[in-house]
């Protein structure tokens, strides 16, 4: 690097942490909602989906950033799509080989990472104009911002909808059912994911007033 | 912005495509044996589940070898086709063929009670995609010992309920032949199934199309085995 910027300068750290809060892809930019609704009925697929997106996004960002000066602008969208699609296929193949049960639960949604607007958006907006290292951080940061929301939603949906966490019957163990508690079946259906995301947005804006739009 | 010539763009895209193809096909080739094994283990797990043996990925193969003692392929006239291996038959392809040409696998499980269970695969259409599973018959070749159904993408909470215990347990003890020995299959009944009935089970409320699909699947697939089941029964009675 010519400007001799330290690897973890404030600017670089910001790339990593901003998407977790102020620029969160789901709760602030409202991108990638489709898969956030679809895979979060249980915590485990949410976590696997989050990790898969981190991998796909970090690697695609770095690859695109490495070739950014050689990509003809006229076909850059095709190049981006090719890179994302190949990464997604690789991740899918790995899941099928090493985490078969989870890959069955995620079914088509791994393939649909390709259409996740967050990834295309970051490649187009960031990786095409920045060096590999900041692009890597930006990719990890944005994917993590997406993943964190997925995991929060998955946590509440599994806990309240099935009374379990990662398949462990938490509510049964602490004896909630004995005092007449019942699982809320609605939590398993996708509308509740949207409502959960809505509640997260609400809480986030309550805590972080900068995000509230002017009337 | 730098100008790129058309030749450059062509060369760039060709190199990119060849590179990507090479990476992906290598990955597919390296990982294929592991993936194939996963699918096999899954199949063994499902066959075991239909004869009510719980297994997980680690012990499915050992349990399968222990309990499933024999398997073969028959045709619609109940004759054994020697050259085919039951485990390798792909039901998805078979159900597209006319009944007379289908290869019909039979898996024979022997549990602790020493009696034979006849496990046959079933395959059909739900609302959004394929539904499939295994039906195990007790050694009287009339009553259902257990079932295992699954689906690719039925509606959660509605059609997707076919893979739950409460739905599958209803089939246990139901009969696919009436007292006169006629094939009656299983009726998936909307409303309340008559508990006295030989062959009625409750459909899923809100999952009518999946329930109907399941009923059709059982009829289509089990009827192919009708002659085989009857032959086996006569053999047993002798």
Architecture overview:
Helices cover 62% and strands 0% of the residues of chain A. Chain A is mainly α and 215 residues long. Chain A has one domain (35-214). In chain A, helix 3 packs across helix 5, helix 3 (43-66) packs antiparallel against helix 8 (132-162) and helix 4 packs across helix 7. The termini of chain A are far apart. In chain A, 37% of the residues are buried. Chain B has 238 residues and is an alpha+beta fold. Chain B has one domain (68-237). Chain B has 6 helices and 8 strands; from the N terminus they run H-H-E-E-H-E-E-E-E-H-E-E-H-H. Chain B has helices spanning 6-50, 60-67, 91-94, 165-169, 208-224, 226-237; strands at residues 68-74, 80-81, 104-110, 116-125, 130-137, 144-151, 187-189, 200-202. Chain B has a 6-stranded antiparallel sheet. In chain B, strands 7-8 form a two-stranded parallel ribbon. In chain B, helix 1 (6-50) packs across helix 2 (60-67). The longest helix of chain B has 45 residues, at 6-50. Chain B is globular. The model of chain B has no long low-confidence stretch (mean pLDDT 87). The chains are: A mainly alpha (215), B alpha+beta (238).
For this entry, give a set of tags.
A: 215 residues; mainly alpha; 0% strand; globular; B: 238 residues; 6 helices; 8 strands; 20% strand
